[in-house]
Amino acid sequence: MKKKAVATLAIAAAAALLCDGLAFAETTINFWYAGSAGQDKYFNGATKRYEAKNPDTKIRSTILPSQARDIEAKLNAGKLSDTFPDVFAAYLIFIGTRGAQGDFASLEEYFSKWSEKDDLLSSTLEMGRFKGKLVGLGYAPAPLMQLYRKDYFKEAGLDPGKPPTTWEELHAYARKLVKRDSAGNVIRTGFDIPTMDSSNTFLEPFMRGNGSPFIDEINFAPTWTDEGAIGALDFIVKMWNDKLSVAFDFEQWGEHPITKGHGSMGAVIGPALSEVFAKNPEFKQKIGFIPPMGPKRPYTFCGYRLFTIGANSKVKDAAWEFIKFMMSKEEMWQRFKDELIPPTRESLMGKFIEDDPEYNKAIADHVKYGKGKSITPWTGIANRYIEKAYQEALNGKKSARQALVDADRDLRAELKRLGLM
After folding, report:
1. What's the rounded Cα separation, in Å, for the pair 397 and 402?
2. What does the pLDDT read at residue 254?
3. Are 26-141+304-371 and 143-301+378-417 equal in CATH topology?
4. Fewer CB within a 10 Å sphere, N or C end of the chain?
5. Is the pLDDT at 1 greater than 80, yes or no?
6. Are 145 and 359 in contact (CB under 8 A)?
7. Which CATH superfamily hosts domain 26-141+304-371?
8. CATH fold for domain 143-301+378-417
9. CA neighbours within 13 Å on the CB side: how many for 37?
């Protein structure tokens, strides 16, 4: 009897140990994101909220540097060491560069079964497709906001409640708004036309609004020689030649004439504009918003960050559950409250607009009609050639048509040399 009792106790002890082991077994999700003070605060809170709801899952976060080239180096090292993240908060450009390398898992099957999929904005889904296949879900849109000064409109005899809605009106209003000194130098711009780093965010929306895809993202080929692209660059050159603007670097958001106070109409990326408004609330009261426009269809630029799953992740199901949590209505609203990131769900747009009716309505429209950088493996290379064409046309070295024909030819030649076309 004693032997039997001892055996029973041993079995019970072993079972207890086994149960304890199972109880503490965890699924670990490696989550990488580019860092900033605000994002650290939000993501730290989000991962804790997820772990509280899912005690069997551990989120191991890695904060990456903010520069794309530095992130690229980290991703390459992770791929070589088999430590590529399970969930990666990707910049839009990575959907093309890393998508071409097969680094992201397809989300098609997961997404098709998600009961809340129809609530996401169509523009959000478009941003996450590589060659038509969904590999990322956009969670942080950053639209380029088109602004105008209401007080300058009134001074020029324009209705401050009626911004331009066509290219023709934009040009006509700019002529009325511009101010020059006795020597003919522009002292207040009519419409801000950048002279540096303009191809990604300034030129592309004009081309797309005029009917050009800019780049064919299915067949991976530039479309810079179509009439939509040529007409768009020609329109910008005509406005520049009318001396409606001054030279400035488009990527230096604080240096834009519109944000410095001597611009009548211009564009600033959403997150940078929010910072400007936070520092100078009085400035916000003077600003109105120009709706997305184009002869063919409304367009503006909208950058994105997207949640992706690593192609070789061993915990894809758990990774998808984490992404669903991060894309939930509650987390989208928390991101807005913490970081002023616009939501990407239709069901949140009413609440979002109510929070700040004029500004947030403009943001919602710009997100709806926005598109970011072209999703190709060689977008960075293309940017160099289109920027050169822009500079040549703006400086009068070539016509808009010739500059784009040459850029199209030279890009195709380089891509063929590199084996990318």
Report:
1. 10
2. 85
3. yes
4. N
5. no
6. no
7. Periplasmic binding protein-like II (3.40.190.10)
8. D-Maltodextrin-Binding Protein; domain 2 (3.40.190)
9. 0
For the chain, give every domain's residue range: 26-141+304-371, 143-301+378-417
388-406: per-residue pLDDT in tens? 999 999 999 999 999 999 9
Sorting pLDDT into bands at 50, 70 and 90, what band is 16? very low
Q: What is the mean pLDDT of the chain?
A: 91
Give pLDDT tens digits for 325-366.
999 999 999 999 988 899 999 999 999 999 999 999 999 999
Structure tokens at 414: 């380089």
- What tens digit of pLDDT does each residue of 190-222 get? 999 999 876 668 999 999 999 999 999 889 999
